[in-house]
Each structure stands twice: as structure tokens, then as C-alpha cells.
Amino acid sequence: MMEYKGYTAKVDFDDEASIFHGEVLNLRDVITFQGETVQELKQAFHDSVDDYLEFCEARGDSPEKPYSGKFIVRVEPELHKVMAVLARLSKKSLNAWVHDALAEVVSNQQDARVTM
Prior knowledge:
The protein is an alpha+beta fold. It has helices at residues 38-59, 77-89, 94-115; strands spanning 2-4, 7-14, 19-24, 32-35.
């Protein structure tokens, strides 16, 4: 994965064509890039994101951002109840409690990857 100006891209290698190709994740707009070397790939990624931002500006549109910080999660009513109680016992809003729980899970997953 690669990151540039808040945009994240996944990269694949096409062994048959001997080329790296990538795509920016989580946008309705499609931003792709490719390169034969890692340096070419990085430059193409940066150029593609910059071109996208310039294109949006020229149209007078705001560029799409991949993450707003908001998402909807559907859970069973009983789980919702338990989470609300646990949040209340922790003297937190449900939103703050879920944020902290998710942050802990993500941190543990990242720690597990480092130790692999």
C-alpha cells in the first residue's frame, strides 16, 4: 500500500507484463497509475493524485475524500444494549466507547503484524 496527500492506493505486480499497477482505494472516482520500477510507480501515483486534485479544482468541485470519519455499523439489538451499558459504566458516550474499542483492536492487529 502507498499513501500520498491522504489517499491510499493498493499496488499489484503483473508478472507477465513486468509492470506495477495501482489504484487509489475507496473513491467513486477511479485513479490508477503504473510504473516499471518502484520509483516510476511512486511518481505515477503522485502525478495521478495531483492530476485528480487539479482536475477537481478546474471543475470547481471539491475532491472526494476517501474517509470522512463517519460510518454506520449495524449490530443486533442485544449487542447494542450491552455496548451501551458498558459505555455508560465507563462514563463514555457510546460513540467514544466504540471508538476506543476499535482503536484497541486495530492497534492489536498492527502489533501482531509487526511480530510476524
